[in-house]
Give the backbone structure.
Amino acid sequence: MNSIVLDASALLAVLADEPGAEKLTPELLGMATSSTVNLAEVQGKLLRRGMDPDEAWEAALSPLREPSPFTEEHAKLAGSLVLQTGMSGLSLGDRACLALGMTLHSPVYTTDRVWKNLKLGVRIHVLR
């Protein structure tokens, strides 16, 4: 395994030391990436909690080995996932995370339990 992909909820769980975050060991976090779409989502949530923009951006990046740019390939795949995930109510951020995991052939980590039922050809780990 070369990398793991964290969605916004997994990043926020790590940052706030929420239940389930302990499953993301230092070894796993050393392989972690996240879509820049998810990083924007995390930064926004941290801003709403009172952080300044630069501080929130650095905090969002802190658990990751490196961020992954949201590419044209990811955009096309994330848009197409609407057909496969329609009734699950996944956001663009959710689909961006899944698209990244699918293109990297890497497992994705989330706290969103509805992802357990997805059959997309990517391994999904639900933290709680």
Summary: The two ends are 22 Å apart (CA to CA).
